[in-house]
């Protein structure tokens, strides 16, 4: 017999192991489940013991040459349906159809299968036909068609195999039982179950108790089938064997009896007394109440007395927003991390969340992560080892030893050459930067063609090393070697530890790639410029959140913002807006299409003690669309567009082709004596003659290049743009409407 067990994505390996434990010798994983072979005993055992599978099907028919509905009918008529159902039982047919050219309507295929079943049973039952029941059938047959392949299954388990029957009622965002088991199987706690020395398990956000109940059942060897109240689908199939079923039931009962003698404890707590009471009732119904210690506690306020053992495992599904309305979820996760690190040293922890960004608030690095699905919700399971003080000290000593060994080792000829250039650059640049009070600056920019990278130093403690992508003619191994030489030279020249040198590869960025996330560490550090503090990220993006070459432009904005209404288009992380506030701007408006960067900008404002709602406004919008949608006027506008960008909800933007349209739209919002600062980093950029004819334009590019960027005077272009003629408000409005109409017509 061939069985198919359906499962959620990324859980097929767990289901495959369950099939092997059930006695199957041939197991094969597929995209949405596991196919395995075995007799009825294997099928019964798997169905009754699987904690992960959502449904089990029995394969009845397979044909690779179905090219029409009539061919499907003819083939299905040969299946001995009488071996699976009798006239006294009702049935239904369900179907899935993929990539089928000969079939326009999947429901029609199900009808042809239904006809074949009915006609076959009429032939063997003297013209008597079975009944179809689409609401509550005894037996369900499932037809799967892909191209010319057709497979027919009988439902073997019944739907919703994950429903164990111990949970009544619900709360918001309840964890499904099979996902809870998958989380436990992935955790380090399950390894201790297999070893026979079961570690204590704690779920401090137990909700209605799904994780602790599933854990107790796993540890005690209680198969889900032992507590199932509703019949399995296979019990209504004609080939059901009661004797084999009873034998498997006895086998599982013996295993449970043996498991009950195991020694283990599980600790379940929640801040909600109502949830804890529901969890107790469910545990009692599941037969595992005696294994679990329940309590009402706030995990973030636990003390050392609440830690039950020197070692153990935390496996939990903390709230991530659905169950929280007013609580600051980020602060909660930060508090969770602090509690785990301070109280549970030597423990393992596995945290499940549907919002992986929240994990960045936990000040620990996961050893590994798993992607799981709770229904249609994508979840991340992060695994942590909580280091003891002894382990932390040992790690620090090992890091010191590695650093000493690196610094003591002689540099290669290439690394020595890079080191010499870096030392020379630092000797020239550092005094200049210190004199200007600059703490974040560039120290190297492809000075030597063999080592093509930009190196920026932040606050004397972090390095952002962006390697320019090597051409295809360069051997990858040579490129890798040179990069490592440059990193070693940078560590030795700057004194900044190897671990704080963050390496990226900077290639030609197109479309959304310029903002593509590289990782999800989400760790920020505070940097300073022009009397302000900024949050910089050295791990997750190519850029850090501060374009260092724009430092003089930001200083210009600060010096000219007093009493001005300031507009920042393509605002990124809001650094220009902050300088305007620092300079005394009456108001600031920051516009960007990225919610991530707008949030980052608001965090920068909060870091400096500035309001994010009174006088300072943040809009998620395409810049040109924003300009068309508002009539607001500004005294000072800063526009620093990307070279190229596109998006699902807007047209693509090319700075060379589209800058005239952008500048025109922005100038309609500039007051008569206002100034627009237009900057871009496209090296071959040329300002359109239309703009220079229509407006007063001053090229200030050279004045906005800092001393640390003088090796590359083409790093950016910058212009001051002013009105030549007085434009009344009424005329401005007419021009704007006319231009918008022309654009719509085009």
How would you characterize the overall build of this protein?
The protein folds into 4 domains: 2-155, 2-Layer Sandwich (VC0802-like); 177-225 and 256-387, Rossmann fold (3-Layer(aba) Sandwich), CATH 3.40.50; 397-507, 2-Layer Sandwich (Transcription Regulator spoIIAA); 524-745, Rossmann fold (3-Layer(aba) Sandwich). The chain is globular. α12 crosses α13 (476-494) and α14 (551-559) packs parallel to α15 (575-582). By secondary structure, it is of the alpha/beta class. It has 20 helices and 30 strands.
Question: Which helices and strands occur, and which strands form pairs?
Answer:
Blueprint: E1 2-6, H1 12-21, E2 27-30, E3 33-37, H2 40-49, E4 55-63, H3 69-76, E5 90-98, H4 106-124, E6 131-132, E7 139-146, E8 149-155, H5 177-186, H6 188-195, E9 201-203, H7 210-220, H8 242-259, E10 266-270, H9 273-286, E11 292-296, E12 313-316, H10 329-343, E13 348-353, E14 368-374, E15 377-385, H11 389-408, H12 413-436, E16 440-445, E17 453-458, E18 462-468, H13 476-494, E19 501-506, E20 524-529, E21 532-537, H14 551-559, E22 565-569, H15 575-582, E23 587-592, H16 595-607, E24 616-620, H17 623-629, E25 634-639, E26 644-647, E27 650-654, H18 655-667, E28 670-680, H19 689-694, E29 695-699, E30 717-723, H20 729-745
Parallel strand pairs: 5-6, 5-7, 9-10, 9-12, 10-11, 12-13, 18-19, 22-23, 22-25, 23-24, 25-28
Antiparallel strand pairs: 1-3, 1-4, 2-3, 4-8, 7-8, 13-15, 14-15, 16-17, 17-18, 20-21, 26-27, 28-30, 29-30
Helix pairs in contact: 2-8, 3-4, 5-7, 12-13, 14-15, 17-18
């Amino acid at each position: 017999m061939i069985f198919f067990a359906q499962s959620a994505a990324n859980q097929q390996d767990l289901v495959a192991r369950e099939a092997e434990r059930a006695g199957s010798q041939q197991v094969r994983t597929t995209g949405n489940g596991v196919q395995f072979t075995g007799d009825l005993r294997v099928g019964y055992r798997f169905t009754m013991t699987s904690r992960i599978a959502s449904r089990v099907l029995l394969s009845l028919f397979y044909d690779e040459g179905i090219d029409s509905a009539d061919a499907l009918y003819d083939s299905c008529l040969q299946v001995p349906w009488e071996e699976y159902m009798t006239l006294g039982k009702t049935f239904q047919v369900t179907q899935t159809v993929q990539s089928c050219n000969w079939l326009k309507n999947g429901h029609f295929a199900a009808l042809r299968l239904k006809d074949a079943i009915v006609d076959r049973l009429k032939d063997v039952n003297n013209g008597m036909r079975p009944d179809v029941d689409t609401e509550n059938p005894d037996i369900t047959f499932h037809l799967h068609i892909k191209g010319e392949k057709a497979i027919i299954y009988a439902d073997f388990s019944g739907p919703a195999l994950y429903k164990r029957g111990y949970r009544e009622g619900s709360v918001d965002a309840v964890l499904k039982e099979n996902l809870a088991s998958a989380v436990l199987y992935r955790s380090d706690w399950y390894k201790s179950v297999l070893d026979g020395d079961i570690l204590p398990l704690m779920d401090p956000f137990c909700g209605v108790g799904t994780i602790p109940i599933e854990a107790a059942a796993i540890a005690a060897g209680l198969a889900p089938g032992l507590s199932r109240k509703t019949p399995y689908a296979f019990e209504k199939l004609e080939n059901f064997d009661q004797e084999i079923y009873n034998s498997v039931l006895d086998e599982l009962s013996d295993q449970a009896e043996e498991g009950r003698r195991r020694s283990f404890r599980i600790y379940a707590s929640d801040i909600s007394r109502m949830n804890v009471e529901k969890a107790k009732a469910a545990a009692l119904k599941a037969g595992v109440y005696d294994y679990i210690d329940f309590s009402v506690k706030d995990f973030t306020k636990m003390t050392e007395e609440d830690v039950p053992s020197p070692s153990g495992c935390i496996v939990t599904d903390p709230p991530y927003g659905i169950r929280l309305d007013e609580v600051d979820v980020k602060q909660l996760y930060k508090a969770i991390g602090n509690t785990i690190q301070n109280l549970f040293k030597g423990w393992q922890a596995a945290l499940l969340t549907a919002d992986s960004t929240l994990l960045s608030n936990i000040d620990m690095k996961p050893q590994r992560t798993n992607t799981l699905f709770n229904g249609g919700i994508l979840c991340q399971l992060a695994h942590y080892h909580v280091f003891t003080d002894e382990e932390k000290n040992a790690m620090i000593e090992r890091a010191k030893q590695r650093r000493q060994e690196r610094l003591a080792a002689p540099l290669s000829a290439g690394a020595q050459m890079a080191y010499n250039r870096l030392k020379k650059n630092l000797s020239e640049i550092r005094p200049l930067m210190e004199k200007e009070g600059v703490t974040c600056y560039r120290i190297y920019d492809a000075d030597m063609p063999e080592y093509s990278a930009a190196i920026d130093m932040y606050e004397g403690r972090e390095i952002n090393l962006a390697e320019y992508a090597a051409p295809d003619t360069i051997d990858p191994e040579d490129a890798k070697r040179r990069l490592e030489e440059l990193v070693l030279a940078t560590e030795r020249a700057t004194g900044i530890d190897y671990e704080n040198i963050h390496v990226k590869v900077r290639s030609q960025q197109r479309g959304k790639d310029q903002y593509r996330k590289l990782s999800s560490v989400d760790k920020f550090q505070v940097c300073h410029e022009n009397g302000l503090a900024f949050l910089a990220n050295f791990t997750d993006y190519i850029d850090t959140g501060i374009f260092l070459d724009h430092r003089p432009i930001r200083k210009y904005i600060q010096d000219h913002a007093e009493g001005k209404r300031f507009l920042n288009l393509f605002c990124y992380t809001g650094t220009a807006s902050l300088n305007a506030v620092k300079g005394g701007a009456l108001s600031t408006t920051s516009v960007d299409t990225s919610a991530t960067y707008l949030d980052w900008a608001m965090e920068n404002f909060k870091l400096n003690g500035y309001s994010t709602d009174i006088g300072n406004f943040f809009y998620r919008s395409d810049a040109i669309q924003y300009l068309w949608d508002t009539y607001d006027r500004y005294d000072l506008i800063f526009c620093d567009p990307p070279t190229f960008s596109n998006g699902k909800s807007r047209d693509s933007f090319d700075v060379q082709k589209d800058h005239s349209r952008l500048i025109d739209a922005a100038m309609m919002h500039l007051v008569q004596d206002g100034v627009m600062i237009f900057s871009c980093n496209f090296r071959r950029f040329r300002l359109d003659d239309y703009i220079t004819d229509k407006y007063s334009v001053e090229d200030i590019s050279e004045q906005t290049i800092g001393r640390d960027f003088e090796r590359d005077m083409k790093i950016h272009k910058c212009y001051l743009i002013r009105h030549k003629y007085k434009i009344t408000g009424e005329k401005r409005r007419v021009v704007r409407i006319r231009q918008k109409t022309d654009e719509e017509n085009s």
